[in-house]
Amino acid sequence: MALGKDYTQQECSIARALEVVGERWTLLVVRDALYGVRRYNDFLVHLGIPRAVLASRLQTLTAEGVLEKRRYQESPPRDEYVVTDRGIALWPALRALSTWGRDNYDVAPLRIFRHAGCGTELGQYGECPACGVPVPVPDVEMLPGPGLAPDPADPVSRALLQPKRLLQPVVTEPAKD
């Protein structure tokens, strides 16, 4: 029996969510958008994703209101993809997957997330252990962990070696010669 392409027979909130974010690459696109990646080419080089797949994922995420397509240049026309409130609401799920992956597969943390307000590393559920509150996504600071390559090849990975708050646009530098 062939696998179906959707979950229409499932009466389950997880199945409905997977209809939007369950395809390969989709959560990594959302992750990068939360990290501040906004431009098509930056997604492309950072993820190493095929162009057609990226275009499809961005189209779906935009149609579903997870990302918003915004024009940032008229001539030639260029757009960027900005995370919406609906996309920000995926942060706890991505945080949980990241924690699970780190605990089960990484030797050293790849990224460290901390409360920008007090500098405390976030707890397992995205809360600040020092302040005792859930930390809103714009108040999460991301730092490179000891498991990241110190000199990555792509400009987005190089830009993400600097501490930055989530949702703040990634500013890439030209490639090294």
Report the order of strands and helices. HHHHEEHHEEEEHE
User: Count of DSSP E strands?
Assistant: 7
Tell me the distance between the termini.
53 Å
Radius of gyration, taken over Cα atoms and rounded to an integer in Å: 17 Å
Strand content: 15-25%
Q: Major beta sheet, specifics?
A: 3 strands, antiparallel
State the secondary-structure class: alpha+beta
Enumerate the spans where pLDDT stays under 50 for 5 or more consecutive residues. none
Number of helices: 7
Mean pLDDT rating = 91
> What is the helix content?
25-40%
Overall geometry: globular
Query: Biggest sheet: strands side by side, in what order?
Result: 3-6-7
Write up what this structure looks like.
The protein is α+β, with helices and mostly antiparallel strands and 177 residues long. The protein is built from seven helices and seven strands; from the N terminus they run ααααββααββββαβ. It has helices at residues 13-21, 26-35, 40-47, 51-63, 85-88, 91-105, 155-159; strands at residues 67-73, 78-83, 111-115, 127-128, 133-134, 140-144, 164-165. It has a three-stranded antiparallel beta sheet with strand order 3-6-7, with no helix packed on it. A hairpin with a 4-residue loop joins β1 and β2. The longest helix is centred in the middle third of the chain and has 15 residues, at 91-105. The radius of gyration is 17 Å and the shape is globular. The N and C termini lie far apart (53 Å). The model has no long low-confidence stretch (mean pLDDT 91).
